Amino acid sequence: MNNYHMPVHDLPRRLRFPLPLxxxxxxxxxxxxxxxxxxxxIEFALRISSTDKEAVDFQDGIKYVNSFPHLFIKKPGSDFQxxxxxxxxxxxxxxxxxYADTFREYGIxxxxxxxxxxxxxxxxxxxxxxxxxxxxxxxxxxxxRIDSLGWxxxxxxxxxxxxxxxxxxxxxxxKILKIASYFRRHYREKLDHDEILRVNGLSRRxxxxxxxxxxxxxxAQYILELKMQEAARLxxxxxxxxxxxxxxxxxxxxxxxxxxxxxxxxSPREFRKELTQGxxxx
Length: 282
Fold this sequence. Notes:
With 282 residues, the protein is α+β, with helices and mostly antiparallel strands. It has helices at 100-105, 121-133, 142-158, 171-186, 193-199, 204-214, 219-234, 241-247, 253-264, 268-280; strands at 4-7, 23-30, 35-37, 41-50, 54-59, 62-67, 70-74, 79-82, 88-96, 114-116. It is built from ten helices and ten strands. The longest helix has 17 residues, at 142-158.
């Protein structure tokens, strides 16, 4: 069983990671109550499971009731209270309270203070990796890796934070975004649009109507812009311009040159010449 309360704040780091961990806690049967003022630390408690149906906490006079699994953030210096509870499976990342503003700057606010979590593959793998590395905490670079893994774990937990300002996506919008993601990944290939729509269960009429609600450019313009951006990147290398066009599945060189000039205001050759001159003047 992985049960430990491991202080790591005093371990020497090889890197200057801006948010070093203070303590890492892992308990498959965590117990204990708290009544009073919290220390000057930020505690991100991932409460995974319990025989209790819910966890009941009071922080700064506000009552929180959460089913499992969930994340609960214990704020530095807060008045905190909980009641006796059944053993819990919990994993906790604790940081010095002096980093509260830094967390906010990096998009990790301390409010809301709790929300439910889906224990997905990413979260489980990160937790297990930290457990594994904790066995060799004094080996060179290990604490730096744990700092990094803790930060990544917080990212995964915060990506599940409820966003009241975001509108719930419709099924059709989800399909449109999935197709747009596919375009962005495969724009260099020859795309079978009818097959893509068939796989996603959309008619051409429905696709174009829903696409227009989400994007200002047409699908063809969207893909062409990606191609032109990639062409500009490739022109920095010693690759024949005709090969660049072919690699982007644009068979007609004059068409490629025309699209490029319309997009950047100069021909591909002129663009490459400007890049070359820029390198020579450095």
